[in-house]
Amino acid sequence: MKKSFAEKLVCPMDKHELKLTVFATDIDNNIQEGIFTCAHCRRYYPVVYGVPIMSPDEYREAQLELPLVQRWEKQLNGKLEKGFLLLEETT
Question: 55 is in which domain, residue-wise?
């Protein structure tokens, strides 16, 4: 996903601005792994293989996202909780 595209995305739940934390990029500096966070509703949305997972909560699979969240746990300082919500805003 190109950074210019990421800047255009908003939270699908409340249409507020999203903050992006990038964990991995490719050779062309495209985002491969990361996480979007919404400070307003406290939801998070992962970026997997360059694709943002921004489905409504009822269509998301926590078990599919769990390995990614665990891999990013150190960078996130344990700030994610069940239900696709943040304990506090990520830095």
Answer: 3-85
